[in-house]
Design goal:
Blueprint: E1 2-3, E2 12-13, E3 19-20, E4 27-28, E5 33-43, E6 46-56, E7 58-61, E8 72-77, E9 87-94, E10 99-104, E11 108-110, E12 118-126, E13 131-135, E14 139-141, E15 146-155, E16 160-169, E17 180-191, E18 194-206, H1 207-211, E19 222-229, H2 237-244, E20 250-256, E21 259-266, H3 269-287
Parallel strand pairs: 5-9, 8-10, 9-12, 10-13, 11-14, 12-15, 13-16, 14-16, 15-17
Antiparallel strand pairs: 1-4, 2-3, 5-6, 7-8, 16-19, 17-18, 19-21, 20-21
Helix pairs in contact: 2-3
């Protein structure tokens, strides 16, 4: 990306008397680039780290799990946020019978853009009888911020995935209002080699006006999508709808084949987080199978830091 410095000295002239507009040379700004590749495998009666690669501003840390919990990978963006031209990606794999959670150290921040959007690419692969929890903390979009987020997952037959992505449009407690920007959020999920879920949300231009539309956001300033892929998803749908009845967010839950999709709309990031914690923990509890550790029903510890 390039920018042109503003001309503060107007009407200037060169030594030979010709006019000079004092436009400085184009400046190319440094961008943040980062990538994490991680995979988990089953070793004896527990899940272990199989491979890990990290580069640029993206790092992964692996805290020692509690005795009854699954392994966790905590993603960190050392750049402290994203803006125009930044690129980050995560590629994660769960081998057969592996069980692990991936989360983020803190909320991601999308700052004001001078040009194009920041881009986030997440690609997951879940093998047979593996269980993957993709539970990043929220993304905060500041006024003028732009980002594109692409989520792709390939789940084998008998594999399970619980994933969430949430976005907060400004921090209401700080009096922030997002009037313009871009959010382009896409999902593509394949189960047993078949496309079972494709979704896209695009908000751009006058975002504040769009958030107020009754058919879109109904004045909400925070949104979350929770997606569950499980061959027994049909048996969970009524229990999940009962859980949603206890939340204060505007919510909905639908079933398409092996996919359950939950949407949450809230008036603030704090309200959304409170309801999202409840929904995720109860969903994890419903997914727990006989013999699995009780720790797999709790959110990662970084969610409460």
């Amino acid at each position: 990306m390039t920018i042109v410095a503003p001309n503060f000295a107007r009407g200037g002239s060169s030594r030979d008397g010709t006019s000079q507009n004092n436009v400085l040379p184009l400046v190319r700004l440094q961008r943040s680039l980062g990538e994490v590749k991680v995979s988990f495998k089953r070793r004896a009666d527990r899940t272990a780290l199989a491979t890990v690669h990290q580069s640029g501003c993206c790092k992964a840390r692996f805290p020692v799990p509690e005795p009854s919990a699954w392994p966790e990978a905590v993603l960190i963006n050392t750049a402290g946020g994203l803006t125009d031209g930044d690129r980050v990606s995560v590629k994660a794999g769960w081998r057969s019978h592996a069980q692990a959670t991936i989360t983020t150290q803190a909320a991601e921040r999308i700052y004001r853009s001078r040009g194009g959007p920041a881009r986030i690419r997440n690609k997951l692969s879940i093998a047979a009888n593996a269980t993957a929890f993709w539970l990043p903390q929220e993304t905060i979009l500041f006024d003028g911020g732009q980002f594109e987020r692409n989520f792709i997952a390939d789940i084998a037959d008998s594999g399970r995935l619980l994933a969430c992505e949430s976005t907060v449009f400004g921090r209401s407690a700080m009096g922030e209002t997002v009037r313009s920007g871009l959010l382009f959020d896409t999902w593509r999920l394949r189960y047993a080699n078949k496309l079972v879920f494709a979704d896209g949300l695009r908000l751009d231009g006058d975002i504040l006006k769009r958030l107020e539309r009754p058919a879109l956001m109904r004045g909400a300033s925070a949104i979350a999508s929770v997606v569950l892929v499980d061959r027994d998803a049909a048996h969970l749908i009524e229990s999940l709808r009962t859980i949603l009845d206890t939340t204060s967010s505007v919510s909905g839950c639908s079933l398409v084949g092996p996919v359950v999709v939950i949407r949450l709309l809230a008036g603030s990031g704090a309200e959304l987080r409170r309801d999202l914690v409840l929904v995720l923990q109860e969903t994890m509890r419903l997914l727990r199978q006989d013999g699995e550790p009780t720790g797999c029903t709790r959110l990662p510890r970084v969610w409460s830091c």
